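2 proteins. here.
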Amino acid sequence: MASTTAQTSSTGGSVGAYLLHRAKPHLPPWLGLAGVGIAGSGAHLMWADSVGAGVGLTLSAVALTGATWWAGRETSAQRRLHSAITVAAGSAWVTGAALAGPLTGALPDAYLMGGAVLALSWNVRMALRTSDGPAPESADKGLLAKVGLAKARIGRTEVEPNRVTAALALEGGEQTNDDVARALVRIASALDLPQSAVRYQPSSDSARRGELVIVPRDMLGDPVEWQGPSLPGGSIADPLVIGQYDDGSPLMVWLPGDPDVGRNASHFLIAGMTGSGKGDAALNLMTEILSRRDVVMWLSDPKAFQDYRPLLPAYDWAVEGGAGTEAMVEALQHVIPARTGWLGKHSYRQWSEQAAGQQTDKAHSCRPDRTACGCPGLPYMVAWMEEAANTLRNLGDDVFTGIAQEARSAGVSLIVSLQRPSYDQMSTSTRASLPSVIALGCDPRDEGFSLPDSVTNQGAHPGAWGNRKPGYCYVVSSGIDEDRYASPGRTCQFTPRAVSLMETLAQWAVRNGATADPITTAAARAVVGNAYTGRATDHIDETTEQTTVGEQDDDMPQTSLLDPEDAAMDPEAELPGAQQGDDAGGLFGQDKGRNPSPAEHRAMFAQALAEFEAAGQMVVGPVDFMDWCDKHGLSRPWVSARLKEAYEDGRLQPTNKTGRWRIVPALTPA
């Protein structure tokens, strides 16, 4: 019996709780109806005989109805109209009840019948919305259905200025993040936005979850002129600002690594078709580098510094291509291990800002007793190869691979700029050694060469710009949040008005920037001799006395009018006697001339090498000797034989390219 009673009680309680649970969502309209009755009755007690109160209540009813209509602008048209009618009816009844009394005339009937109908209409609306039948699709679900992602679910949504981020969960076992990547262009079409405005950031922990990012307004449409470097006199370890993202935030990159934040040093590839703004992008990065106090830059530019001439004084070493670039590459291959050795001896696992200054910290001493060594610092170094396709063709496909693989630990960043980084321009190994990229507009077929597949899958498509939007770019590099990889940015524009400021920056760098350290200088000159000039740092000091026209200092060297080739001749010496063949030259069947002895062969070739070395051309081959051979009546086989002898004597060393030799600088007498 007790058991039956308990069961009945339990069942009754469960039924009651269920009915209460089901009734709760439908109670608000009826509670609102009761509130209107109480408000009308209370208002009648206070303002029954007040004309002013009648006017105020009428105006309040109109204002409340208008506010309801305005607030419902983001909802559906039916809900907006339903809400406005309900508020208008309720406020009108309260006004009438307050002035005439809640029980006067038709007011009680209107309250009981009209109020009940309105409350029931809201109950019906709620029942239809929560019934088991198919519910009307939301705008989000309708959009996803249109693009083939009907079973996906939109989760938490964050709305920021000019940026909407929505969490997206796909149907397990049926959809993956790759499906979203393929649907991005259709989503952009459905929203009537450019392709670059919609991107997807897949979760690293799930194959079916990620975030859909929509940037409705392009803030990059108006170009921004370059106004100067972002941090003049700062360190190269600080971020380099080269433009802005489409949401207005600064576009920043880093070159040196930082173990404290887990950032590796970066080598950069700058890629973009003609007209895409590659030159301006390079100038943004280059001016940022040259404005820092602890970095030196080497530049190879086969275009004869067409874009960079105002900055020419700021470079530590600049060459126009050809043999000069060959010498620079050879020097880099020897400078890198020398710099790595210096960093290792001073207990630096990688270059840091502290390495650029004088070594006064005993923790970074090269002395065995670990006392402060006081060695000069080692500035960061940037090797910039402009129009690198020419260099790759001339020096070999993998000329940069070894340099890039070893340079980061030496405090050296390699920057390679070319129009099309395709496989016929550079090898897979070379491309892999340049993981950081500034990808400007390109041919759609070249997107895979510029950006990793993981970034294009997120919605990055530089091929959509081509050369129609100069300066637009995607930047992939260590130090940048991976969520930003697919966010487009735009570099600043360099106009003719920027030339004067660039020249000022170059002069600042000459006076205040870093100069090459002794280790880098010695390694470079040991390989290419005086072809490496280093940056000129001499400038006129206002306190220095100037020699006026007409005055001559006895200590100053006298200008000679003698031809340098005749400087060693003794004007009083007798001329040498004629030798067999000297005067005939092969005429009328006579001998063609005297055949030099082997010793003379070597002396003549040594003279030729000395002339090349004096001119700063430290990489030579048979083609470079053709004019010299024509001048002396010698043949190409003669040059080949002499090249072999010079190699055996240690005066030449082979380079990466067949047929090209590096001149070993001659020792200077002490």
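next one coming up
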Amino acid sequence: MFASLLRVLLGIVVLLLMNSSVVKAEEDLTLKEVKERQEQANEAIRNAQSLPIDSPLRGKTPLSSLLSIGEALQSGDYKNAAKYFDFRYLDKQLSDERKAELIHRLTIVWSQHHSLDISLLSDDEQGHVEDGLPANRDLLGVIKTSKDDVPIYLQRITTDDGRLMWKISGSSVANIPALWQEFGYHPWAESISHILPEFQLLDMENWQFVSFVIILVLSWYFTALIRQILLKLVEFSDTYRRTMRRFISIPLRLFLFFILIQWLSGHLGLSINARVWIDTGTLNYLAAIFLSMGIIEFCFALYSSRAENDDQNAIAIIKPMVTTLKIFVVMVYLLNWFDDAGFNITTIITGLGIGSLAVALAAQKSLENIFGAFTLYIARPVKPGDMCKFGNTQGRVEEIGLRSTKMRKLNRAVVHVPNSVIASMDLENIGEIDHRYYNKRFRVRLNTPRQTLQTLVEQMRDLVVNHPNVVDLETYVRFEHVDVDAFVIVVNAYVTTSNRVVYKQYEEDLNFKILELIDRLGVELALPEQHLALKNIK
């Protein structure tokens, strides 16, 4: 048993190395067309099974002959299938085993080049009468060889019992050995197929399916070897080592994996039904998807590694954008694959449009928050670390997410504000203040002499104007007006800091110096007073 298995594995590896011919089908078929033809043929064969094997209706028309052949081949009844082949041009003593072998070989060669469309077969006893061929002959298809085109005919002949019957023509049967010489399996493949159990899976012969599995395994380990070599090479780069390792480990390896599978599978002589997945670019699209995903992730990783602290909020916004871009790229590849496979892409896009509209209506609030996040990222009114205020909320921005912005209020409480709310309100970025505003109102008692009041105002003005931390910007000290219980002196200035803590230090210094001046001049500040008038009630 082990020796047989080893022989199978060795033979398949030799086949992959020796077989360099790639069969190309005459027909440019799509996956949808192949599936539709298979379903039509299977349905027609099921209907034909209701007729007895020896029914005179079988073989009376080209269609009935092909359906009878298909029915016999499905059940492995080559003896019955041979009734619909004209072997008159071959050895009269041809054995049943040799006939079955020829039928099987023609079936394989035909399946490599054509997918039978029963809708083109005539269901008339006379066949196609206006095809330019003799009245007793219909063209089933043409197989293109390296030398010439070999037609496969159905011919109406008279059987030994005197009735007319459509069969695969004798000239077509005579060409089977030459066709097999060019398109047939390698002798190794035939010997392996005899060792393996008889089965057919995914429209592959037994040896083809086993070979395909071996191709998967060999490709996986071969790409693993390439990955290891590339990882060793990028070890010499200190700048992009981590990013390159991530790109090589998964996306690049899977890209090479699918490309290698496609190339090796093309040398197995697969039928159109099995090869249509490869011919429609399924493996190519898978390879392209993984490579595109890897390139997108690679670019994002490069940007993230170079981003400074101020760009961390940009990374938080770009990351979901990268995910959205990946989904978009996958959708484009899928739509192109559906188009290549023969499906109506307009119908698919229309369905996606209606579905997207329903999702958009259901997720309206979420979309508002997403667009709000984009607005905050593009306009950049605030960034993480900024102190800001909108409405009655004031705090420091810690993170700008896709749905909400995280803020820490002055009391250290954390609040998550939806981005749509921030984007639609007046936003005050306290972190962008260049100079802090100092504005005070001093109330002096009404009994203060005018000269003392004037001296106080002048000295306060000199103090503020000459203070080292006050900038020359709308600085003034004025005796503004007389209130009901006090003279009001207004001090207006800007200090040379934007930092709130430092501003409080400067503010305190100015306050103390002004109070010191007031005390030195003997001025009394007006205090709020209440006067109660009491009347004696007799």
